[in-house]
Batch of 4 targets.
Target 1
Amino acid sequence: GEDVEQSLFLSVREGDSSVINCTYTDSSSTYLYWYKQEPGAGLQLLTYIFSNMDMKQDQRLTVLLNKKDKHLSLRIADTQTGDSAIYFCAERLQTGANNLFFGTGTRLTVIP
Amino acid sequence: AAGVIQSPRHLIKEKRETATLKCYPIPRHDTVYWYQQGPGQDPQFLISFYEKMQSDKGSIPDRFSAQQFSDYHSELNMSSLELGDSALYFCASSGTGTGVFYEQYFGPGTRLTVT
């Protein structure tokens, strides 16, 4: 299947910026997403970017897309303890299927 | 705003039993997706329905079946349960008529434990 890779863990201090990275292999991705999952909870759609965009900003969240390198990142400014969660990137392909392929997830720990 | 509803939230079954999971999509959403998330894993796509017809199929075992009803709710039927079926099962929905068909919203999940 499609390979979407993320680093497993990230720790940051409260107030610092967090950068979560994701690489994907399928160049036919149309939309790329970031979801947040808190322990025992569902997947919350945080933001997404269309593949013809380079950047999208939404309050504390900034998404950067480097299509040439197939690299996606999520920057969280002024990280708070409530941001501690697992963050999944996901891609939607152009092949007609509308389902999402998820990355392995990055567990973000915010240290007070 | 209304979200995706899943029931039950928790389910305990024994091996070889059957289970039925239900999903109620966001109002006006016509597409439903089912995903399975094993412990410590990323969600894996199982199957999806658009306007009550199966639209895509992923890694769904033959022991599982699903359907979407006229009110757009969906049910995932799982038979001959195995220990390895223990997982979180998510339903997601999106709406082709909403203008943002690419936004896929997830329910809280059903945690299935097979003993």
Target 2
Amino acid sequence: DGGITQSPKYLFRKEGQNVTLSCEQNLNHDAMYWYRQDPGQGLRLIYYSQIVNDFQKGDIAEGYSVSREKKESFPLTVTSAQKNPTAFYLCASGQFISSGNTIYFGEGSWLTVV
Amino acid sequence: AQSVTQLDSHVSVSEGTPVLLRCNYSSSYSPSLFWYVQHPNKGLQLLLKYTSAATLVKGINGFEAEFKKSETSFHLTKPSAHMSDAAEYFCVVSEDGGATNKLIFGTGTLLAVQP
């Protein structure tokens, strides 16, 4: 099946640890995104990548890092510098088209700091 | 800068009655607009999108939305609510008319459907 796969679905992190959330897509999309969702705040953009080996900071990039070594993969690392990492993380991908881009989302990953 | 405002954080309707979820946007460009739906603990699913073609856009599950430039609105409607429509709905505008592929999300409207 074509789509976006995020793993793990649930992750617990101890204080001071780095953790990595996986995102893989088989839609052959050029662009990939990471969003963070907190209750009542909608989605906020962490990082995005429009092409392999290139990525840009979004609105809340501090405390996060990404890589884009392959077209289909865009992992997100939540570092110990992120002060409040407990949230729902959503990965998305999309393709430039002339009539406006549509992006598609994975099922999300819950990260909880313990 | 582009922005989007969802006018109601919660909407409650009875099953079989119409649904109206309101969205206003601000954009310097000709915008692309989207509605997404999110069920609990799930990702977002695209309901419909407007990209400067027909102003009345039909989506999945009987939903539709009308782009009104004069009112800067893109309200989502459905003639008859079903229990399975209970979810959170996000209105989204594409920044720079889609050129950068960055989406600006509203804060969401939680739709409750009463039996």
Target 3
Amino acid sequence: DAGITQSPRHKVTETGTPVTLRCHQTENHRYMYWYRQDPGHGLRLIHYSYGVKDTDKGEVSDGYSVSRSKTEDFLLTLESATSSQTSVYFCAISESAAPTNTEAFFGQGTRLTVV
Amino acid sequence: AQKITQTQPGMFVQEKEAVTLDCTYDTSDPSYGLFWYKQPSSGEMIFLIYQGSYDQQNATEGRYSLNFQKARKSANLVISASQLGDSAMYFCAMRERSNSGYALNFGKGTSLLVTP
């Protein structure tokens, strides 16, 4: 199994508070992604990183920021949590950007509830 | 516009039967990859099978095969000899050069229930 760890696995937080989710990999993969999964929507890309300090927005980036100061860590921050950000968050890593036989490996997911 | 369409929200199949999960995609990029993932009730995302746009033959991995019809832009997953442990959500995904960071674009998924 790919070495990818998300923390925390579960979190309940109050509306308006900042929250940071961590993704840690031991595979030295260049690409890292944050997705959110909601019923009826599949997985949607929030932000991604293509190297240290190189990040960009995905489809649903409003209200989220990311940072990647080391190859192995990709942090997702909800600047001021809202109930609409209640979701399951997945981190994914990928060795190569080429759309060839390079699957993305996923973390176990973080279930975030904003009350 | 939806890049990946999975039209079957839920499917039932009897144990030991084969089942086909549908997936159609939309791209103008000649180079792309198609993936299927399984998500059991425990929540993890498990990679099942991959098909490249230039691959001449349909991909197979054990009981999983991908019925790739390029002209129709479809990439259906076929599970042969279904087992109870196949009950899960199944997601079709595509990777193309025009995607943000070459990220996978996912469909909304199909929930498969295998009955005894």
Target 4
Amino acid sequence: GQQVMQIPQYQHVQEGEDFTTYCNSSTTLSNIQWYKQRPGGHPVFLIQLVKSGEVKKQKRLTFQFGEAKKNSSLHITATQTTDVGTYFCAGALNNAGNMLTFGGGTRLMVKP
Amino acid sequence: GAVVSQHPSRVICKSGTSVKIECRSLDFQATTMFWYRQFPKQSLMLMATSNEGSKATYEQGVEKDKFLINHASLTLSTLTVTSAHPEDSSFYICSASWASGRGADTQYFGPGTRLTVL
């Protein structure tokens, strides 16, 4: 079955440092979505990438979708304490309806 | 917009009892609702997918008779954990989406239900 791997599992950064999480799928995806879950909260949708090689930015967050549509990354520039949380990628297959397969998540901790 | 509510937020029950969790899409009609289970510091594990008016599709390893899912309307899905045992203690999260016809759609998550079985 489809697998979505995410690395690293944990990341500690000093406030102001950059952070990147990587997502790799065993199969080609129709699109990939990113979610953020704050401690004690529920996942919140951040963005969806659909096109091969697509790059999208949201303020300090940059999302990329690989040319082969099998990998993706989320980069945060100059982290802030409000960035703390777990970032999940979720991949969708063409023939899987609305179903998403979630990566294991990367837990980001930011030291002030 | 796209708000999903879940009730209850927390429940503590005795072993052997059944617990029902409700998931509602408040401001949109959800063609599909998903039920996930999340253990501490782990990812979301999809349990089942349900479409309004039809039987839920369960993921491998999820017992249909133990986790009963009903999706009676476009705004409500319920998950009933029958004869709960301590190993069923977990964080249960639902999500809802509507079919845009453009592949996998954004899922909007409920706040989750923390189930503790004593």
